What we know:
Layout: H1 13-25, H2 28-40, E1 46-48, H3 50-61, E2 72-76, H4 84-97, E3 105-109, H5 113-121, H6 131-135, E4 146-149, E5 155-158, H7 164-167, E6 170-171, H8 180-193, E7 198-199
Parallel strand pairs: 2-3, 6-7
Antiparallel strand pairs: 1-2, 1-4, 4-5
Amino acid sequence: MSTDHLRFSGADAATQRDALEAIIRQQPVLMMVLAGLRDMALPDHLLVAGAIYNQVWNHLTGRPDMTGVNDIDVFYFDDSDIGWDAEDKVIKACDIRFAGLGLPIQVRNQARVHLWFEDKFGSPFSPLTSSAEMLGRYASRTHAVGARLDAADRMEIVAPFGLDDLFSFRMVPNPVLDNRISHTSKGERAKAIWPELTVIPWPE
C-alpha cells in the first residue's frame, strides 16, 4: 500500500480540487456515469458519495479501483413533479442506460426526500432546494462531495465542507441531523477497509 496517502492533506483548495478531478477522470466507471448523466440531461444531477470518496482513498493507498464501492449513488433535483411515478421513470431509464456497469445505480430525486425521510429514519426533514443542499445534510462531512460534467466536458466539483477531510483520511461528523448511527456504522465499515482512516466520534 502507498505510504504517501496523505500527500494532498493540508494542500490549498485548488490543488485538492484538481487532485480529485484527476482521480475521477482516471476511473472509467465514474466517467461513464458522469457522461451518461450529462447526456440524459437529468436536472441538477450529481454523482455523489461512496463511488467518489472510496475511489479517492483507493487511489491514494494503492488499493484496487472501486474497492468498497457497492453501488453508484446519483442525485437529481426536479420539483416539477414530486410523485413516485416520475421518479420511478427516471430510475428505470438509468437502470437501462447503465446496465453494463456491473454495479447498481441508486438514483433519487432530492425534491422528494422530505416525503419519506422521517418515516424511514425517524427524524424530521425540511424540503430541499437543490441536489447540492442534500450533501450538506450528510451524516459525515467527509462524504459530502459530488461531481458532474458540462457540455464542454468540464467537471464541476460540489463539496460544501471542502475536501481536506477527504484527503486527510478523516471522517468528521455533521450533526445537522440526528445521524449518529449512520456516521458510526459507516465509520466502522470504512475503517475495516481503509485502516488509514481516523473516524471522529459523534459529538455528545
